Amino acid sequence: MKQYEIRLTGSGGQGLITGGIILAEAAILDGKNALQSQSYGPEARGGASKAEVIISDKEIVFPKITECDLLLALTNVACKKYLKSLKKGGILVIDSSVDKPDRDDITVYQIPIIETANEKLKKSMVANIVALGALNKILNLVSEKSLENAVLDRVPKGTEELNRNALIEGRNLIV
Amino acid sequence: MSEIKLMQGNEACVAGAIHAGMRFYSGYPITPSTEIAELSAELLPKHGGKFIQMEDEIAGIAAALGASLTGIKSMTATSGPGFSLKQENIGYGIMAEIPIVIVDVQRSGPSTGMPTSPSQSDIMQARWGTHGDHSIIALYPASVKEIYTTTIRAFNLSEKYRTPVILLMDEIIGHMREKIDLEELKDIEIYDRKKPTVPPDKYLAYKVSENDVVPEMAAFGEGYRYNVTGLVHDETGFPSGNEVVADKLLKRLINKIENNKDDIVTYEEYMLDDADYAIVSFGAISRSSKVAVNELRELGIKIGMFRPITIWPSPEKQLSELSKKVKKIYVVELNAGQYLLEVQRIVSGQCKIGKYGKINGEIITPQEIVSFIEEDIYA
Amino acid sequence: MPSELITNYFRTETLPHIWCPGCGNGIVTRAIVKAIDNLNISKDDVCIVSGIGCSSRAAGYLDFNTLHTTHGRALAFATGVKLANPKLHVIVITGDGDSSAIGGNHLIHAARRNIDLTTVVFNNSIYGMTGGQYSPTTPTGDKATTAPFGNIDPNFDLCELANAAGATYVARGTVYAVNILEKVIQEGILNKGFSFIEAVTTCPTYYGRKNKKGSAVDMIQYLKENGVMYSAWQKMSDEKKIGKFPIGKLYSKERKEYTEQYQMLIDSLGKERN
């Protein structure tokens, strides 16, 4: 497996950093190497938020991502800001509320992540988990079992069922 | 049983500290070091230790020094502005020979700068931040696993040499999460300060016994009543204005570190055996440099990297040897050129020196280093 | 022949002290030692923490665990000592500038926490060690080397400050009313919480001379004439209070003590100290 670099972007409070941590933990459960990092402004809610995950079978040396293989963008602002950092031939996953960008050298998945969390699961806070379910369906980076274990390990007690469903609903968004 | 987990750098620092025996933490919240305080607050009382959030950065180090005098291993953590505020009491710890670990998760400055952006610009503050002539130990790990082991080493050295030890980190390694196997690290040796071997009436608090490097250290409350002061003092611990006493004390405090470099200095050499060129780099940026070395080698340039893990005292002997072997040393650091000055001093004309730095709050990428060095060599 | 109090509790080899003739600091230091002696506390269990300034030199002369720290930081060091080893009786010796200017922040927060420390402020209304500059307790209008035309700063009432910040025992004594000073220090040590004792002392060399207060004896005479027991003070009219100040125990209250609260936290988490 080559080194795979993922950037999760949106606004603060959407749980993207937690999402990044879960993905990295799932990779470690699979016996792979993973490195997670983030950048954020001073605001805990509402500001631009970016989490990065690098997954590899080998040692990960440089800890940051310059050009990513996959970009998730949950807001228009984030999509505009980070689109140029997506590799040629890369994958863009955007929420259905985000405008489809004008780039023909990438594969775009435009899916209702936030709507699924809000309407189907009745909990906006699980949008990050819905996104993880979808991402992993596309990439098959980590085993479904490890992803589920990593999710259940991080989420608050009593929300296990909700989060398990969020993963399933996310997976179902990709056909 | 393996205990493999994803751990943040700041978290690994606390885990390593507790492994080393830290049972007291006092500090003040500051980005990007705050997770160290948060995790200490959670873990210490569970280990019978104490955590206190003090009213300011100065009190943060002062309380830790006070706690250490009762025989408890203590730590405080901060970042640039707070590191500046702690400097006077770092000097106190040096003068009074109090073991303590001070973590500085470096961020961009000067002043408030860019609080969430990385930097390596406290290299010289770590060396010369407190006033007066002194020597200092400063360590700088580059990975989550190494943060764990180096934090333990920081405690061990502070106990062994009875001196504050600065653990330098940066926002990148402090906040990133990496794989760590705690099972593999569980047997790392711990060093505890040497207690008095004489009864209280024979105890001279600042007398170094033959074959020892530092005075034996009694804890307050154990029956050895002695005086601790930041004033120049004689072997009894009482203030003295005598120039002979002052000269002897200050030289002893400097030499206990400078004369034991072989024990204190650690470093990593990467691809240096056949190298014509070398990069000197540390902390997060050494990871960029390592990738750059690999890529430059693919371009046919024989280059390697020297990474000081002990920043102060600097690996003088090793860098001097290196300068006799290579044509040029490139100092690559996330600042405007601080360790560069130390490398220049050591190399002293034995080879050429180049520098690559950055002060805009962004990491130096491997590509930047490759282009810079390639251009420099073929220019 | 020095008194037994001196031979038992002072490091006589460090004497004579550095204080000027007529300075009241020796009287306050003796009162602290007398209070400890009255309470029969083992010297090994006492830790004296001081800052920087004339008063803070007292620590070095005393035969306890002594910690002479940096300017203003005595209370912060003492907080670490006490929290790390709650068995120690920690007494902080500090001055007016040390405790209320450079160390003012530590004072209000130590009082807020109600950590079991006994703080004795040697208040001589001036920075003596540096040669007579005005401090936060120099009365408005008084002169100092940095207030050659008279001090325009309003001055602190340290006892009111400590009380407002949460100290659970607050008292004032003077170097004239030594019995009262001893008594309040003793009560301060017994109080399980933050105790604050203002010891009004004399600096004939700088404060006295700059402000034409006469000799050391005149200055002590002033303390005798103007320090009024708190019980009497409470019955005085506002008019009569002008120029005078209350001494003795001023305030006490019940609040939870910090290190006990922390120990309860540790106990509730169910682990014994390693």
UniProtKB/TrEMBL annotation, chain A:
Residue intervals of the Pyruvate/ketoisovalerate oxidoreductase catalytic domain: 12-171
NCBIfam families reported in the protein's UniProt record: PorC_KorC (TIGR02175)
Keyword check for DNA repair: no
Protein name stated in the entry: 2-oxoacid:ferredoxin oxidoreductase subunit gamma
Domain of life: Bacteria
Pfam families for this protein: POR
Keyword Iron-sulfur: no
GO function terms (MF aspect): oxidoreductase activity, acting on the aldehyde or oxo group of donors, iron-sulfur protein as acceptor
InterPro entries, A to Z: 2-oxoglutarate_synth_KorC (IPR052554), PorC_KorC (IPR011894), Pyrv/ketoisovalerate_OxRed_cat (IPR019752), Pyrv_flavodox_OxRed_cen (IPR002869)
Keywords per UniProt: Oxidoreductase
TrEMBL record, chain B:
CDD domains xref list: TPP_PYR_PFOR_IOR-alpha_like (cd07034)
Keyword Oxidoreductase belongs to the record: yes
UniProt name for this protein: 2-oxoacid:acceptor oxidoreductase subunit alpha
Family matches, as Gene3D superfamilies: 3.40.50.920, 3.40.50.970
Taxonomic classification: Bacteria, Bacillati, Bacillota, Tissierellia, Tissierellales
One of the record's GO molecular function terms: oxidoreductase activity
Coiled coil: none
Pyruvate flavodoxin/ferredoxin oxidoreductase pyrimidine binding domain segment(s): 16-242
Taxonomic source organism: Soehngenia longivitae
UniProt key word Oxidoreductase: yes
InterPro entries from the UniProt entry: 2-oxoacid_oxidoreductase, PFOR_II, Pyrv_Fd/Flavodoxin_OxRdtase_N, THDP-binding, Transketo_C/PFOR_II
Keywords: Oxidoreductase
Top-level lineage group: Bacteria
Alphabetical list of NCBIfam families matching this protein: PRK08659.1
PANTHER family attached to this UniProt entry: SUBUNIT OF PYRUVATE:FLAVODOXIN OXIDOREDUCTASE, SUBUNIT OF PYRUVATE:FLAVODOXIN OXIDOREDUCTASE-RELATED
Pyruvate:ferredoxin oxidoreductase core domain boundaries: 275-369
SUPFAM superfamilies: Thiamin diphosphate-binding fold (THDP-binding), TK C-terminal domain-like
Family matches, as Pfam families: PFOR_II (PF17147), POR_N (PF01855)
From TrEMBL, chain C:
Signal peptide extent: none
Residue stretches making up the Thiamine pyrophosphate enzyme TPP-binding domain: 52-198
GO BP terms: cellular respiration
Molecular function via GO: oxidoreductase activity, acting on the aldehyde or oxo group of donors, iron-sulfur protein as acceptor; thiamine pyrophosphate binding
Taxonomy, superkingdom: Bacteria
Keyword tags: Oxidoreductase
Protein name as annotated: 2-oxoacid:ferredoxin oxidoreductase subunit beta
Native source species: Soehngenia longivitae
